Amino acid sequence: MLNYTQLSRTDFNLLLLFDLLFEERNAGRAAARLNLSPSAISHALRRLRSTLDDPLFLPTAKGMVPTERAQILAPVIRDIVERVHGVVAHAQGFDPATAVRRFRLGAPDGAVSILVPRLVKALERDAPGIDLAILQLLPRAGSQGPEESWRDALAQIDSGVIDLAILPYRPASSRFHSVTLYSEDFVMVCRRGHRFARARSVKALAKARHVLVSATGDRSGFVDLLLAERGHQRRIALTVPSFHMAVAAIASSDLIGAIPRRFAIEAAQTYAVELVEPPFTMGAGDLNAIVPRAAMEDRGIAWLAESLVGCLG
């Protein structure tokens, strides 16, 4: 049974402060966003620590570092804040034609090139007051499996750093709402006239010089695993942090690379490259728009997710 007497003594503003401090890791920036003085923030933080019986945030040279208990509480408090915001936003309504708002989207660069131009065009037509901020999302270095790869991205959604993420992964947690945008697979890309386009065998693939997209400079990817299963290995002659850089390098060299098909089709309109079907299946998967389920109560967030689906229709 809910203890209404106890809850009535809880100040929701303290939860807002917790949420902002967890996101900003800086009391000054949290104060600015709440339009409060540093002394008011300091007083509120003391009340918050007393209410939750934990130091919560420890001052260090790198900012306010959350304690272990704060790390545990963060997604729960974020969910509460999102739900309250959703109730208020739902009551206020949302008209894209007149709304003035800024959304933050996160996505891998291959998805950005496919979705953002279409979404910007739709906003210019239907929602001229809406602004976008695009953050690049990268899989966690050295991760094994999609859940671990995109854990950091899901944490950014949870903490409010981004409003919506586009990921080649659908989280199992019921805290998230996911909608499939499109399916994607990989093709090999080489410059026009490259000999690999005429002899696309496993042996030719292994013999070629490759570019690998890796944010950390790792020299192994899923193609290496597929080649190893067939008794081959390849040479990674270049690693770059984005598919844009990879295609630019491929167009001006003898390098080849595994590139998302839709991205490669778009890139071939700008760069002198051609798509080559690989000698074995390199897998396929869905790109999903992901938001906290509670955030779908915000009509603006719900409209954004619907608009992403619509701009691909």
Architecture overview:
- With 313 residues, the protein is α/β, with parallel strands linked by helices.
- It has three domains: 4-90, Arc Repressor Mutant, subunit A, CATH 1.10.10; 100-182 and 285-310, Periplasmic binding protein-like II (D-Maltodextrin-Binding Protein, domain 2, 3-Layer(aba) Sandwich), CATH 3.40.190.10; 184-284, D-Maltodextrin-Binding Protein, domain 2 (3-Layer(aba) Sandwich).
- 44% of the residues lie in helices and 22% in strands.
- The strands form three sheets. Strands 3, 4, 5, 6, 9, 10 and 11 form a seven-stranded mixed β-sheet that branches.
- 31% of the residues are buried.
